[in-house]
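USER:
I would value a second opinion on how I read folds in token form. Give me a protein, with the fold worked out from its sequence. Write it directly below this note and I will take it from there.

ASSISTANT:
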Amino acid sequence: MAVTDDFLEHLTVDHRNLKRGVDQSFLSRLEALDLRIHAPFATEKLVHMIESRWIPDQKHSDRLEVVGLLSFNLTVLYEREVGIPTAGLQMLDTLKADGLEYKLTVEALTDHAKPDYSDDSEVFED
């Protein structure tokens, strides 16, 4: 599944709307999230979504009818030519200092990690 802007927006909790209702709380019991994302990606939207789900105040969490996120693991996959794409993720370090279990892994894609379709010489016979 691709991590699209729409997906991130659905995961984002609106703290202003305290009468969300069950149908409006997408994955309302989400406590742990592991994402593998190819760079470049919508860093600002990802950070905003994580911030919105970090709800350390239990009373506020109860009012929102959303369980606060406790753990977030992010793996960023990038091509060497692009460079290491960690700009904009510093805010997640602040949430980690406040208690969020957060782990960032950055992996460079190698040439052999990409599919190679150059030798499509397989012959199909009836």
About this structure: The CA atoms of residues 38 and 100 lie 23 Å apart. Residues 5-12+35-113 form one domain.
